[in-house]
Amino acid sequence: MTDLAAFIAMAPLADTHEHLKTEAEFIASGPDVLADLFDHYVTADLAVAGASTEALKRLHDTADPDLAARFLGVRDAWELVKHPGYSEGVRLTAKRVYGLDEIVPEALDEAQKTAESLRKPGEMKRLLKDVAPIRSAARRVGPACRSRWSPYH
Fold first, then answer.
1. What SS3 class is residue 60?
2. CA 53/CA 97 separation, integer angstroms
3. Distance between CA atoms of 76 and 73, rounded to whole angstroms?
4. Is 54 helix (H, G, I), strand (E, B) or coil?
5. Which residue, among 49, 34, 115, 131, has the nearest Cα to 82 in the 3D structure?
6. What is the 3-state secondary structure (H, E, C) of 84-119?
7. Which residues of 115-139 are buried (b: 16+ CB within 10 A; e: fewer)?
8. Over the stretch 3-60, which tens digit does the pLDDT of each residue have?
């Protein structure tokens, strides 16, 4: 990585549009590595690329512990959409948070252990501040989805 690329990768950001959970929601909603990676706009890309409604439902079924099988249903679609748009965020999260160079079925059980280790107080803030690096974010708050500016410093 060049010096410029390293600087850009770690430049502090102010995120003005985010759908972040509160820390309590983050802790309570997990852990599930597939939900962490695919619980956002990329689901629409997977559908357009041919993933069936049933495969998408299974991908997001956090009660199903078979991570490999859940991912296999969308794997072909993922291969078609993994480079552009929202998928870049998925790949960056997979690499920076879960240590995955590629999202493949055989790596998901190990990544799940990381997901489990993240569900404790302080980890969400650490991820945002040290890994992202987001210094502040406007995020949805409450049932009306009002925005609130949240500093993470």
1. coil
2. 28
3. 8
4. helix
5. 49
6. CCCHHHHHHHHHHCCCCCCCCHHHHHHHHHHHHHHC
7. beebeeeeebeebbbeebebebbeb
8. 998 888 778 777 766 677 788 888 888 789 999 999 888 999 999 999 999 999 999 9
Mean pLDDT of 120-148: 73
Provide mean pLDDT across the span 81-91. 92
Question: Which structure tokens are listed for 143?
Answer: 């049932």
Q: Which of 13, 18, 12 is nearest to 147 (CA)?
A: 18
Assigned token pair, 74: 């969308």
Alpha carbon distance 18, 78 (integer Å): 23
Tokens of 97: 């948070």
